[in-house]
Design goal:
Largest sheet: none
Number of domains: 2
Distance between the termini: 21 Å
Helix content: over 70%
Structural class: mainly alpha
Strand content: under 5%
Order of helices and strands: HHHHHHHHHHH
Low-confidence stretches: 13-47
Number of strands: 0
Number of helices: 11
Shape: elongated
């Protein structure tokens, strides 16, 4: 249960950090000069490996306060709660989430959007179905492609999951493939 929540926490921070990047604005509200094409390639690559949480953690308390002030109150509370849940995770789970975020950030934008839709669908499942669907997804993503196809075509899979769950699991397994 913690993993999907934490993954969503990471994904929820993406819009916050991209707002700053799109507007050429730092989290403290100051304008940030845009780099020339190709300039600072190493620095850009290093920044690209950071998760929104890591960038958030590097902000000063004042920068964080200003960034949160720009958000609607409900969104602000939501992000603060998700950050707290992330901080409370064991370090190994936090690292797994960072790794998964990196895998997600390497996806093309269309696949990222599709994954977000699938995550929302997953979260709208009844609470008793989420662990079952998550377990199936984790199992499928660790299988070689041929085994995955066999499993997806099996009668057990078709009877155990609704058609929408089948499609969700199949799409997630296709997008994320095997565990990095």
């Amino acid at each position: 249960m913690r993993r999907p929540i934490a993954i969503l926490c990471l994904l929820a921070l993406v819009p916050v950090t991209t707002v700053f990047a799109q507007h050429g604005m730092g989290p403290d509200g100051r304008n940030v000069p845009r780099a020339e094409p190709g300039a600072g390639k190493r620095q850009k690559e290093k920044r690209g490996k950071d998760t929104p949480i890591e960038r958030w953690n590097r902000m000063t308390p004042e920068e964080r306060r200003r960034a949160l002030e720009k958000l609607p109150p409900e969104r602000r509370r939501d992000i603060e709660q998700k950050l707290q849940r992330f901080r409370n995770l064991p370090s190994q789970e936090r690292q797994q989430l960072r790794d998964r975020y990196q895998a997600f950030s390497r996806l093309p934008p269309e696949e990222q959007n599709r994954a977000r839709v699938l995550f929302r669908q997953f979260n709208s499942l009844p609470p008793d179905r989420r662990p079952v669907v998550r377990q199936e997804f984790e199992s499928l993503r660790s299988m070689p492609e041929s085994e995955r196809r066999t499993r997806l075509n099996s009668s057990e899979f078709r009877t155990r999951f609704t058609s929408s769950e089948q499609l969700m699991v199949q799409d997630l397994a296709q997008i994320f493939g095997s565990t990095p």
